[in-house]
Amino acid sequence: MVRSDIIRGHLDSIILRLILEKDRYGYEISQEISIRTNNRFQIKEATLYAVFQRLEKKEIIEAYFGDVSHGGKRKYYRITPLGKAYLNELVKEWSEVKEIIDLFMEGLE
Amino acid sequence: MVRSDIIRGHLDSIILRLILEKDRYGYEISQEISIRTNNRFQIKEATLYAVFQRLEKKEIIEAYFGDVSHGGKRKYYRITPLGKAYLNELVKEWSEVKEIIDLFMEGLE
DNA sequence: AAATATTACTCTGCCTGTCAAAGTAATTTT
DNA sequence: AAAATTACTTTGACAGGCAGAGTAATATTT
Question: Do the domain assignments include residue B27?
Fold first, then answer.
């Protein structure tokens, strides 16, 4: 299991990528992350909902209520055009970050 | 210039790698990072010295005073055996983090 | 039918890493 | 002598992430 403070700062990317594929609700995203990473990373509930709040305030995502099924009412999120642009920036940034960190990791692996 | 909150959590690795090569003092490390990254990343002074304090307390690095030259007295740091083991862990962790983030970046670049 | 588990979201208060700003001090350059 | 550069330290603040506790509805088990 990867420490979460090392993933810190990349949660926006991960979450945005998932809701870019299709609108999703919180619990679903949390499950999806666990599945895709094979449980190597799990987002904490409190963190996930904090990210939603932050991104919604910045108009990067929008929320709407979906059907109530299998428990509590689901709050779905969709990515806005602004959000798509933002995600694009994050993707570029990630490849630059990889380059930079790799610079210092070279010869150690 | 890469945002520093995206490098966050990797400063230990970067700094340890540099003092693994040879004992270094703070200002030198700061310069070296700028040079190697071609100014794509610069560590802030306050941050650098905070990292030193943290790593020294954990006995990952040790300090000693060197000659006074070109200004203030230099405080050199060396990596301890514990530090080498720690750095090793960080290197492994980095390749796992890359895999995980890349999982979510796939198809977007 | 009652108890338990699962699904699903929210809120509060805390911790940690990073940083701006200001300060100290010695040496080098102008 | 003044200014720039080298070099380190401290303080206080901020933001992201998280543990823990709570609310509420549906599904499953007993």
Answer: yes
Residue nearest C28 (alpha carbon to C1') = B70
CA A70 – CA A68 distance, rounded (Å): 7
The rounded distance, in Å, linking the Cα atoms of B44 and B32 is 13
CATH classification of the domain holding A48: 1.10.10.10
* CA nearest to nucleotide C12 C1': residue: A46
Summarised one tens digit per residue, pLDDT across range A12-51 is 999 999 999 999 999 999 999 999 999 999 999 999 999 9
Q: Does A108 reside within a domain? A: no
**Residue range(s) defining the domain that contains residue B16:** 2-103
> Cβ separation of A91 and B103 shorter than 8 Å?
no
Do residue B17 and residue A97 have CB atoms under 8 angstroms apart? Answer: no
Q: Give how many domains chain B has, as a whole number.
A: 1
Q: Name residues whose C-beta falls within 8 Å of residue A98's C-beta, 6 or more positions apart in sequence.
A: B98
Q: Which of residues 79-108 of A touch strand C (CB under 7 A)?
A: none
What's the whole-model pTM score? 0.93
CA of A55 to C1' of C20 (A): 26
Summarised one tens digit per residue, pLDDT across range B59-78 is: 999 999 987 778 778 999 99
